[in-house]
Design goal:
Length: 175
């Protein structure tokens, strides 16, 4: 029954997103992929075509394009983010925080059943305890970690105040 769900994966042109798409397809889910551009050098439009995945170009800062991407999807996996240690805070904030807000708004309007927001373990900074727990202090040490923590807060506000069924995950760094 659950595999009848249409899963939207944001940031699907990147490393994490493209692997999420592959994982869902390999496990029998229907998938739609979206990204502003395809940034993973090992992924191109043919990659999605070969998997039988509908790829839709969309921009986290353009709600109209996001509405087209989310239309008909029951589940949203949202790993899309801007990661660059040298980028100014304003740019990272706009994409990671405002982009998450836009994605949450369109997902809520579309009536999605589940919204999985990718954060990062970098929200902990230098963890005060190993392993870190959900309740461990959050002290990000750089702009990316700060904006991902702020994007978590946005997603969780949509859960608490507006009922969007949000799950936040904090995977470790990928190298």
């Amino acid at each position: 029954i659950m595999k009848d769900k249409l899963c939207l994966v944001t940031g699907a042109g990147g490393f994490i997103g493209s692997h999420m798409v592959e994982h869902l397809v390999e496990n029998g889910y229907k998938v739609r992929a979206t990204d502003k551009k395809i940034s993973n050098p090992f992924v191109n439009k043919k990659f999605f075509d070969d998997l039988g995945v509908d790829f839709v170009f969309a921009d986290l800062l353009d709600k109209r394009s996001l509405m087209k991407a989310v239309k008909g999807a029951q589940w949203v996996f949202h790993p899309a983010a801007f990661f660059n240690y040298s980028a100014p805070y304003e740019i990272m904030y706009k994409i990671n925080v405002e982009g998450t807000r836009n994605m949450c708004e369109v997902a809520l309007k579309a009536g999605v059943e589940k919204f999985v927001h990718w954060s990062t373990c970098e929200v902990y900074g230098r963890a005060s305890e190993i392993p870190a727990k959900e309740t461990s202090p959050k002290r990000p040490t750089h702009v990316y970690g700060r904006t991902k923590l702020e994007s978590e807060k946005v997603a969780l506000e949509f859960y608490k105040k507006r009922g969007l069924p949000v799950i936040v995950i904090r995977p470790t760094a990928v190298v």
